[in-house]
Amino acid sequence: MTRTTDRLEPSGLDPALLRAAFGAFPSGVVAVAARVDGRVVGLAASSFTSVSLDPPLVSFSIATGSRTWPDLRRADHVGVTVLAAHHDGVARQLAGPADTRFAGLATVTTESGAVTLADGVAWFDTTIDRQVAAGDHTIVLLRLHAAAHVAHPLPLVFHRSGFGLRQPA
Ligand SMILES: Cc1cc2nc3c(=O)[nH]c(=O)nc-3n(C[C@H](O)[C@H](O)[C@H](O)COP(=O)(O)O)c2cc1C
């Protein structure tokens, strides 16, 4: 299918349009988490992406207003779990009230404090390599120290503000 240029006539870049256009791009969802001051802190993020094999880097973007990031950024190591298809409820929980985000979830904590979910599709043990200011978000580059993955189950997909691939309303 060819794209007609009239689709890109100046129509404004208001946040609602941007959110809808950005949401047309499907992504996975990760849990980013660590033990900091004896407490597990973290959140769900769909902005995760692989960046570099050598050196091994991944990234995610965190909203500048995040109340979790000031604690999470102090972690020695940060765990990243690629969520599985059945984790839609877990993703919502990890985006909800901070004090109950990990309630009832089976987690694994490394000696250096990286926290991953026992269940998932892939896991990374990381440290924060660099933070790049990017508008209302900060791009966080994570350096990998270990990685693992399993073939099953399928990953969770986030698309058009919901889970699974979705036709526009
Ligand atoms: C599917 C999904 C994806 C999300 N992706 C991001 C993300 O990439 N970056 C981000 O800052 N917040 C993201 N959030 C929101 C966070 O999980 C969390 O709700 C938000 O950071 C507010 O909590 P905080 O103030 O404790 O950081 C996402 C939420 C959901 C449900």
TrEMBL record:
Chain ranges of the Flavin reductase like domain: 22-165
One example GO MF annotation: FMN binding
Keywords: Oxidoreductase
Stored Pfam families: Flavin_Reduct
Family in the record: Belongs to the non-flavoprotein flavin reductase family.
Protein name: Flavin reductase (DIM6/NTAB) family NADH-FMN oxidoreductase RutF
Organism: Actinokineospora auranticolor
